[in-house]
Amino acid sequence: MLYKCNEGLLRGQYYRLVTACTLHGGPIHLLCNTLSLNNIGPQCEKYFGRKRFACVLAVAGVGGSLASWWLSPVPSLGASGAIFGLIGAWSIFLYENQGVLGKESANAGLRALAQTIGLNILIGATIPGIDQAGHLGGLLAGAAAGYLFGPRLDMHFQPFSGQVLLLDRPIISLPR
């Protein structure tokens, strides 16, 4: 079995931290995660680029699985921890790049993300079997990944040409 199972993890089956992120409990679970990924994924990938986007998904997925292991004895599976990680990374992106994106636009995006998080907390509190620990772990891991290697946009004026360059200066640059 490949789902997150605390007993298996305690026996050294650490692959479950990754494989659980690729499984789903049925068609409705898969559909919800697919729609959620479709809502936030393209925008994140556009600004983060494929490599950083994939890294955020991986870090957040494993972060969600780790939080679930530490905080929830219940077996779990699904990509929602990784998707919550995109929400965390995108939140950091909007906050850190307000100067380039515009404060009003960034704040509108942050409010929308806060509503999404709040709605998901409410859904998770009312529907049995939703792994809130995995969601929280993914959100925090994604936010950390977004902070460390997410885009940090900076406008740089070129005095001789009159051009304005948009530079990306993350705290940690991923290898090419």
The main sheet orders its strands as 1-2
Q: Name the beta content range.
A: 5-15%
Low-pLDDT parts are none
What proportion of the residues is helical, as a percent range?
A: 55-70%
List the helices and strands in order.
HHHHHHHEE
How far from one another are the termini? 35 Å
The DSSP helix count reads: 7
Total E-strand runs:
2
Radius of gyration: 18 Å
Shape: elongated
Largest sheet: 2 strands, antiparallel
- Chain-averaged pLDDT: 95
Q: Which structural class should the secondary elements be placed in?
A: mainly alpha
Structure description:
It is a single chain. This protein is mostly helical. The chain is built from 7 helices and 2 strands; from the N terminus they run αααααααββ. The chain has a two-stranded antiparallel sheet with strand order 1-2. α3 crosses α7.
Question: Could you give a short description of this structure?
Answer:
The protein has helices spanning 6-10, 16-19, 27-71, 80-96, 98-101, 103-126, 132-149; strands at residues 153-157, 164-168.
Notable characteristics:
176 residues; 66% helix; elongated; mainly alpha; 6% strand; 7 helices; two-stranded antiparallel sheet; single chain
Helices and strands in order, then pairings?
Elements: H1 6-10, H2 16-19, H3 27-71, H4 80-96, H5 98-101, H6 103-126, H7 132-149, E1 153-157, E2 164-168
Antiparallel strand pairs: 1-2
Helix pairs in contact: 3-4, 3-7, 4-6, 4-7
